[in-house]
Amino acid sequence: MFLYPSLITVLTLLLYFVLVINVGRARARYKINPPAMSGDPGFERAVRVHENTLEQLIFFLPLLWLFSYYVNPNHGAILGAIWLLGRVLYAWGYYQAAEKRILGFAVSNLAGAFLLIGSLFSIISLIFKQYRNIA
């Protein structure tokens, strides 16, 4: 069963939802009217946190599920939780100052790299195993 990867997926989408709300709050706080996407640095940091997290979701969510399916769902959920923690650290740091985003970025990217490498090796291993059984 994939209970824990499912929980990580929901928590990830909840984080994303909070980041969307934070952009709206920053618009109101810094009086940046749509469609403007620049102005106060605080608003621009909120937008970058949101946009970068959206970009990372495209990488993370498929890898979370591939790893969970082909390697181990519990280990996938642990790596997913680390990725999620990294994104929270990233947002928290970036909201304060751009240079404070590095730790969160590194944590989430390291977890993503483990998901990528684990998925790739497991899938390739299964392909070779299947090929040997045919030959």
Based on CA inertia axes, which overall geometry fits? elongated
Distance between the termini: 33 Å
In sequence order, what are the helices and strands, one letter per element? HHHH
Overall tally of domains: 1
**Runs with pLDDT <50, length 5+?**
none
Number of strands: 0
* Quaternary structure classification: single chain
Quick structural summary:
This protein has 135 residues and is mainly α. The protein is built from 4 helices and no strands.
Write the layout of secondary structure elements.
Elements: H1 3-30, H2 41-70, H3 73-96, H4 102-134
Helix pairs in contact: 1-2, 1-3, 2-3, 2-4, 3-4
How would you characterize this protein structure?
The chain is an all-alpha fold and 135 residues long. It has one domain: Four Helix Bundle (Hemerythrin (Met), subunit A) (Up-down Bundle). Helix content is 85%, strand content 0%. It has four helices and no strands. The protein has helices at residues 3-30, 41-70, 73-96, 102-134. Helix 1 packs parallel to helix 3 and helix 3 (73-96) packs antiparallel against helix 4 (102-134). The model has no long low-confidence stretch (mean pLDDT 96).
